[in-house]
Amino acid sequence: MSRVAELGCAVCRRLGHEGTPAELHHPRAGTGAGRRASHMDVIPLCPAHHRGALSGIHGVGTKAWPKLMGFTEQDLLDDTLKLLGVAKEQH
Ligand SMILES: [Zn+2]
């Protein structure tokens, strides 16, 4: 899991700033009921994009946030898994 945090904030990365110190976000809420839970389902987010009132997923809310940012938690999770070299089908 620490490898995920070491990637830096996934949102900042998309905005062109790689390596922003990040904490781990667990995108459980909002995923499909049939989706398999995995310890790999974590996204690195910096405090501003995690908890910030203006741009944080928990500050803005998980429904409004994707509209604000232009991408979803799933997009960021896909980015993260690609960077880690983990295919979605693997354990
Ligand atoms: Zn960020």
How would you describe this structure to a colleague?
The protein is mainly α. Helix content is 41%, strand content 7%. It has six helices and two strands; from the N terminus they run H-H-E-E-H-H-H-H. It has helices spanning 2-6, 10-14, 47-51, 57-60, 64-69, 73-84; strands at residues 23-25, 43-45. A two-stranded antiparallel sheet has the order 1-2. The chain is globular. The chain starts with a helix and ends in a 7-residue tail after the last helix. Residues 9, 11-12, 20, 45-46, 48-49 line the site of zinc ion. Residues 9, 11-12, 20, 45-46, 48-49 line the site of zinc ion (ZN).
Show the helix and strand layout.
Layout: H1 2-6, H2 10-14, E1 23-25, E2 43-45, H3 47-51, H4 57-60, H5 64-69, H6 73-84
Bound molecules: zinc ion.
Residues 9, 11-12, 20, 45-46, 48-49 line the site of zinc ion.
The molecules bound to the chains, other than polymers, are: zinc ion
Mean pLDDT: 86
- Going by helix content, strand content and strand pairing, the class is mainly alpha
* Poorly predicted runs: none
Biggest sheet architecture? 2 strands, antiparallel
Rg value: 12 Å
Strand element count? 2
Separation of the first and last Cα atoms? 14 Å
Which strand order do you get reading across the main beta sheet?
1-2
Task: Write the element-wise H/E pattern from the N-terminal end onward.
Answer: HHEEHHHH
Proportion of residues in helical segments: 40-55%
**Global morphology:** globular
The percentage of residues in β strands lies in: 5-15%
Report the total helices.
6
